[in-house]
Each structure stands twice: as structure tokens, then as C-alpha cells.
Amino acid sequence: MDNTLSNTALTEPHGPRPKRLISTRNIVLYGFLIVAALYWLLPLYVMIITSLKGLPEIRMGNVFSPPVEITFAPWAKAWDSACTGLYCEGLKVGFWNSVKILIPSTIISITIASVNGYALSFWRFKGSEIFFTILLFGAFIPYQVMLYPLVIILRELHLFSSLGGVVLIHTIFGMPILTLLFRNYFASVPEELFKAARVDGAGFWRIFLQIMLPMSLPIFVVAIILQVTGIWNDFLFGIIYAGTHNFPMTVQLNNIVNSTQGVKEYNVNMAATLLTGLLPLIVYFISGKLFVRGIAAGAVKG
Amino acid sequence: MTSVAISDLSLSFGPVEVLKSLNLEVEEGEFVVLLGPSGCGKSTLLNCIAGLLDVTAGQIFIDGKNVTWEEPKDRGIGMVFQSYALYPQMSVEKNLSFGLRVAGLPKNEIIERVSRAAEILQIEPLLKRKPGALSGGQRQRVAIGRALVRDVNVFLFDEPLSNLDAKLRTDLRVELKRLHQRLGNTMIYVTHDQIEALTLADRIAIMKDGLIQQFDSPSNIYNNPHNRFVAGFIGSPGMNFLQGALVSEAGQWFFNAEGLRVPLSDYRFVHPPQEGQAVEFGLRPEHIVVGDASTTQPVTMQVDTELVEPMGADTVLWTNVAGHALTIRTDSESNVKTGDNINIGFNTARVSIFSENGERV
Questions:
Q1: Which residues of A touch B47 (CB under 8 A)?
Q2: Alpha helix positions (H), chain B
Q3: Judging by beta carbons within 10 Å of its beta carbon (0-12, 13-18, 19+), is residue B154 exposed, middle or buried?
Q4: What is the mean pLDDT of residues B22-32?
Q5: Residues in B lying within 8 Å of A, measured between beta carbons
Q6: Which helix (H) or strand (E) segment is B254 a member of?
Q7: Which among B47, B85, B103 has the least Cβ separation from residue A196?
Q8: Which of A20, A24, A170, B265 has the greatest count of CB atoms below 10 A from its CB?
Q9: Mean pLDDT throughout B106-134?
Q10: Residue range B305-353, pLDDT digits in tens
């Protein structure tokens, strides 16, 4: 009797269920993931190797083969001396213009939107819901409709073709989505916390600055990522409202790549494109996890 | 002296009337519990007293001062919330002193008050910790401390124990009662837990649909409910209600139901009864005596046991008498089994009779 019991204990399932690393399911799953990843990485690979080749090597036509002789000259040219229209000063001008547009736009839009979201969640006033709906509606109006009216408005404000003008435009267009983001985040903060602070005698700004701000770091990170990548990648507003001297990097990139004079310098074009895309890429690499977490925390509740 | 007085208070959210011309007077040093089912307006009333909601009509007085339009901080109240509502980024010490810092009190005064509150609540070792590193009971203690440091006469509690587990709830309940004895402040306490209400309160205000149904001592609430709602709300298992009518015979009133006739010789009528009046006869499960002892009771009858629920300290019997369901609470020693026919008895001095509109007869 004892014998049979110990025998079955060995043969029948016992303890933790064994996990098999190599199963059909895993092979299919990881196989698909790897193929998909390679497919999406291929263009990046081509760009990088092309940017490191000299023009003669490119002319040989082996798009996928790695460079025989690595050269950084195309990168230097793209940054320093590539011709964008009339000037041949490279992308660096556009880079600094982009920075000058990016920093104030990000700071101003997030500051205003966070206060908006906070007020709309905790200090409801008569018509605040309608106000919020109108603001949200702004996110769904096609940009094309507003382009020309905004040109006129900026002209009247004497801000057309200036840094201030394009910053103002970015701040306005960031408002609906950012306000939604912050409102939803603050809506998930227990209302009792707000009530407790009011019983303690704190007012609008003190509650915002001392209680809400310290606990909303994740959503600020999300907002910063959204704005930094969004504004950096912007082309339309930059080309229309910034004016020739303030063209952001994206506009200059276009001018380099699409210039029709002379030889097409594929290596310089690739290097310029990579340089322009570098900042959003870095932002995504650093903040991927935070970004997903913040979006999940802020955007679900309506 | 009256500590908190509410006169004709109404509050509507659009077309929904949450509080309907409500009146309440709380004496100084009194522990008042607002008790009612969810949605009865008890938390709303507390928020109105705190000044966190604007009232539609009526007035609120605290310590004789009309505070209807005052900001929460100027009302002389401290408030404790169900979710503790501690500021997550601040240490316990900073949580306690936040209100005092806002008020711009001198530093040594703040330190003094915080250490006094921490000593009363025995949270001194926790002062440097963040709320996230505290257990539920400790958090609630800090939340109480935050009300304590404000040095106010009126404490408002909004279901402070509802988020705690059963054991801790009992412990903190006792602690709250001790705190009240020690401080002697006026306390207004909202809960939906009748045990909390009965154990803590000097007086209980039972609320339903934005109105106070009865404002009375716990024993009066339990023994002399003014209406059918209060009777049914207090007590677990709930009061038995039998449908029937009042009839008189030779100067003696009886409660008549199908197959049942109960002489009401010991019942004290509040309103003069009328012949044939349709009523509900309310009898608490714990007021029914089972077995041999039942013969000493003025009213006796036989019931069929349908279900036996042993609960440890006592046993609940679900029985049937002439088609009427009757719940009986008896001690756990009784050896009643399902299907038994048992003798029961009760005294009509302890029953409650309600007219059709729910008022006590």
C-alpha cells in the first residue's frame, strides 16, 4: 500500500508545473517578433550604413552591404555645411532654432495645461464641463482650417514670422490634448485629499503647488515627452509661422534633402535625417517605460 | 450649550434634492452619529457642516456663530475622511503640521501641537515616515491627528473606519471613544455601520432620503423606533414584521393576523388605536424567548423551525408561524434542529406597532 502511494507521487503531477522553453508556441511567438523587429529595423540599418559610406561606394549600389571604408564626413557636412536653400551652414542653425522653439513652447504649454486640468477637476465652476468640451473639440478641427486665420491673427499681433509667434501656436495647439491628459490624471486623485487640504486652509495655488504637483510627476513626464517629440517633429507650423530665419530643423532637413541642384548626396541626406531624428529617439529610449505607465495612468478615465 | 446647529438646511444638485429642510442641534461635547443607508445624504450633510459644499438654503451655526458662508478653515472644525486623505508626498509630521503652516503659526507652537497630538495618538515613532509606509490603522490615526492639531471644538468624521478590517475597526472604535472621553470635543460621525453608531454615539440621527427620521439616544433608537424605517434599519438580523390589523374585544386590544391573535395588554400606544386599523407588528428576533423559559412570557405560541444558523455566540432560527416568517435569535446552547416544532414566548411591552404610513402607533 505504502509502495503504490510513493510510486504515484513520483509519476503523477506534483510540485510546480514544468515550464518548457522550446515549445511550438514559443517558437512561433518569438519567431514572429524577431522577424517583425528586423523588418522595422531594416530602414534604420540602411540609413546608418549609407550615412557612413562615401559617395563612390554608394554608387556601386550595394544598399545592404556595410561600408568598406567608414567615413564621418557626411555627418560633419550635414551638421556644418550642407546647403539649405540660400545658406550653406548645415543643420546646426535649424537645430538651435528648434531648441529655441521647443523649450518655451514645452514649458508654457505644460504649465498652463496642468493648471487647466487641475482647475477643471477640482474647482468646477458653472459651465466648466462645457468649457472642457469646447477645448476638446479644438483637438478635432483639422489644422488646415485654422492655418490662414492664424496667419492673420499673428500678423495683427505683430508676431508673424517670429519665434514668439510659433511658440504661441504650439502652446495653443498643445492645449486640448494636454488639458485632457492632466484633467484625467487629477480626476483619479481622490477628492477627499482636496477636501482635506481645504479644511487645512490651503487655497487654489497652495493645493496645486504643494499637494498636487509633487504627486503628479509621472503625468508631467508624459506631457513633456508628448510635447518635446511633437514640437520637435513639427514641420507645418515651423514652415508657416516661424519665418526664414527661425526655420526649425525639420524644415531645414527638407531643404537639404529636396534641393535639386547638383548631385544627390545620399550619405549627407541620411546623416541629416538621423541627426534630426536623434532627439525623439533618445527621448523614447530613455523614457519608454515611464511613457507607457503615464499614458495608462492618465488617459483611461474619462 | 449648542455646539452645532443646523436650521432648515436644503441642498439640491440640479433637480435632485439631497437634503430637505433639515434641522439638527448638537450639544457641546456630544458624540452624534449620522446613520443611514448609502445615498441618504449623511455624508453630504457632513460636507455642508465642514463648508466643502455650498448649501441651497438654510443656515449652519457652529459655537453660536453663523458659518453658512465661511470657508472650511474658518469654521473651527477638523475633519477625518474614509480614505484617510493623507498628503502622499509629505512625512507624517508634515501632514500633521500642514494646516498650521498654512495658518502661519509660529514654529514652536507648531512643534508643540504636533508632539501633543502624536503623544495622544501614540504615533511618535512614525513622525518621519511617509504615509505609504504606514498600515491602514496607522494612517487613520495620523488623519485623526491632523484634525487634533487644529485645536478646534468640533470634529467631523466621514466613515473613518470603513476602510479598515473588522478587527482593527473594533480596536479603533474603542480608541475613538476613549479619545472623545479625554478631549470632550463635539464629534459628528457619519457611518452606515449600526454597531459603530450604537456603541459610539450619545445620540444617533437616523437619516433617509435627506431627512432625519429619528434623533435619539441609542437605546431609544433600538427600543422605541419612531417609524417603520428606523425599526427595520437598526438590528441584525432585522426586526420581524407581521401584517395584520388591530381589533378590540371587551376593552382589550388585539393584533390580528391570518391564523394569529396577539393580546396587546402590555403595549403602550403612542396614538389611540382604531378598530380594524391595518398595522405592521414589529418584533425583534432577540426579544423572543425559546423553549421552557417561554412559558413565563405573557404571549406564547408554537412555531416550525425551517432553518438553523449557528453564528458562534448565538444561533438564528428561521421559523414559520401560521404562514408568517419569524426570525428568532437564541443562544447557541439551544439544541433546536431543522423541522422542530418549538415553543416561543415574548412580551408585547417590547414590540413596536406601525400604522400603514409607517408611524408608530
A1: 195
A2: 42-50, 92-102, 107-121, 136-148, 166-183, 194-200, 218-223, 228-233
A3: buried
A4: 95
A5: 47, 50, 52, 71-73, 77-79, 81-89, 98-99, 102-103, 143, 146, 150, 158
A6: strand B252-257
A7: B85
A8: A170
A9: 94
A10: 999 999 888 999 999 998 899 999 998 887 888 998 999 999 999 999 9
How close A202 comes to chain B (CA, Å)? 6
The whole-angstrom separation of Cα B12 and Cα A267 is 71
DSSP symbols for B296-339:
GSSEEEEEEEEEEEE-SSEEEEEEEETTEEEEEEEETT----TT
Name residues of chain A where pLDDT drops below 50.
Answer: 1, 299-302
CA distance A202 to B123: 24
Question: Which residues, in sequence order, are CB contacts of B73 under 8 Å at separation 6+?
Answer: A198, A199, A200, A201, B99, B102, B103
Distance, in Å, from the CA atom of B308 to the CA atom of B323, rounded to the nearest integer, reads 18
- Nearest neighbour of B81 by CB, restricted to A196, A206, A214: A196
Beta carbons within 10 angstroms of residue B176's beta carbon: 23
Q: Which domains does chain A have, with CATH numbers?
A: 22-71 (no CATH), 92-299 (1.10.3720.10)
Instruction: Report the alpha-carbon distance of residue A298 to residue B335 in Å, rounded.
Output: 59
What average pLDDT does the segment B24-45 reach?
94
Judging by beta carbons within 10 Å of its beta carbon (0-12, 13-18, 19+), is residue A16 exposed, middle or buried? Answer: exposed
* Closest listed residue to residue B241, CA positions, set B352, B130, B360: B352
| Domains defined for chain B, CATH in brackets | 2-226 (3.40.50.300), 240-355 (2.40.50.140)
Report ipTM (2 d.p.).
0.87
The reported pLDDT for the residue numbered A42 is 94
Helix (H, G, I), strand (E, B) or coil at A111: helix
Q: Per the structure block, which three cell numbers stand in for B212?
A: 432625519
Nearest to B127 by CA among B89, B97, B92, B96: B92
- Determine the residue of chain A that is closest to B78 in CA distance: A199
pLDDT tens across A114-170, in order? 999 999 999 988 888 899 899 888 888 888 888 999 999 999 999 999 999 999 999
For the record, the C-alpha cell of A178 comes out as: 494636454
pLDDT tens track for B59-73: 999 999 999 999 999
Q: What is the pLDDT of residue B265?
A: 87
CB atoms A198 and B77 under 8 Å: no
Q: Cα separation of B35 and B233, whole Å?
A: 10
In contact, A218 and A101? CB cutoff 8 Å: no
Distances (CA, A) of A27 to A36, A202, A227, B5: 14, 59, 39, 74
CA atoms within 13 A on the CB side of A148: 2
Give the strand order in the sheet containing B314-321. B289-290, B341-346, B299-310, B314-321, B324-331
